[in-house]
Amino acid sequence: MMGFMTMTFGGMSMSNGVMAIIAIVGAITCRKGDKKWVGGGFFLAGVATFTAMLSFVLWTVQAGPLGEKDDTSLKTAFFLMIIAMLHYPLAMFMFWKHLQLDSGKQGSAMA
Fold first, then answer.
1. Which residues are listed as membrane-spanning (predicted)?
2. pTM here?
3. Residue ranges of domains in the chain
4. Contact (CB, 8 A) for 41 and 100
């Protein structure tokens, strides 16, 4: 059961991350800061971060007692999950910063 939950949250993290990328790119390029796209990008990236953290915790709990012989040790996929977990909030911050700079440019052009 624990392995199934780990795989489920890992898959949810990946799929929400892909949808967040699509929403963020769409909000920057096509929709030019449309609130629905911006909110969707932040929400999906937040869900991706949360599910990646859950996957990290479950994976750590699962891999501890089993060890190397059952091949649930902390290998490449585990470290890729950690990298993804750290990059989702970084992407949200960079998107927020882009929106701040973009709104500043529009405000100064009007004056």
1. 12-30, 37-58, 78-96
2. 0.77
3. 2-110
4. no
